[in-house]
Design goal:
This protein is of the alpha/beta class and 205 residues long. It has 5 helices and 7 strands. Strands 1, 2, 3, 4, 5, 6 and 7 form a 7-stranded mixed beta sheet that branches. Helix 4 crosses helix 5.
């Protein structure tokens, strides 16, 4: 069985990504298993840039194949915000509740779903170790889920902006969907599907 490192210390993310990839031939581990791995400050100006920062740090401290992801919510009426700042939209002491409240406040003047168009976007970066880590061959995989922001929060599942995001073609918010249904249409699920295809063709063969 091959070992693959998720460039995150979040056990919840590890569980989610293990479910999304669904590859019994691969053992996914997270950075919690490597005491020397530091937290990485996400200072890049794009999802791809932040994913690369986390990936290169993980490669340097594990010497194993790794992948990292970065994602966010983009709202058209807010000119693409919160974007890469989605997790800290409401400030340094941000949490899901504060972020959702700020989003609803800023969209209070927009009542038509057409005015509240939005999308979740995720970028995954994968690479194997090389002698010169900054020169590691990085492969990127992107997933997008289009939709709009609801007028009120609904549902108890998911996390982040899921109670406010209605996927295109649905009347339910992400937080109201069953996990298997959400996985098929989520931004991270779509990015993981592309990563899975790549791993099967180029890494496991």
């Amino acid at each position: 069985m091959k070992k693959l490192v998720v460039a995150s210390k979040n056990k919840g993310k590890l569980i989610e990504l293990t479910r999304l990839l669904d590859m019994p031939e691969i053992e996914l581990v997270c950075l919690d298993d490597f005491s020397s791995a530091p937290d990485v400050e996400e200072t890049a100006k794009s999802y791809r840039g932040n994913a690369k920062l986390k990936l290169l740090s993980a490669l340097a401290h594990t010497d194993l194949p790794c992948f990292a992801d970065d994602s966010g919510l983009e709202v058209d009426a807010l000119e693409g915000a919160p974007g890469i700042y989605s997790a800290r939209f409401s400030g340094k002491i941000a949490n899901d509740g504060k972020n959702n409240y700020k989003l609803m406040t800023e969209l209070s003047g927009y009542t038509d779903p057409a005015q509240r168009k939005a999308r979740f976007r995720a970028v995954i970066a994968f690479a194997e170790p090389s002698q010169n880590q900054p020169d590691a061959k990085i492969h990127y995989f992107e997933g997008v889920s289009e939709g709009h922001i609801a007028l009120e929060a609904r549902g108890k599942g998911g996390f982040g902006y899921d109670p406010l995001f209605v996927p295109e073609g649905y009347t339910k918010c992400m937080a109201e969907l069953e996990p298997a249904e959400k996985d098929k249409i989520s931004h991270r699920g779509r990015a993981c599907a592309k990563l899975k295809e790549f791993l099967k063709e180029h890494w496991l063969s």
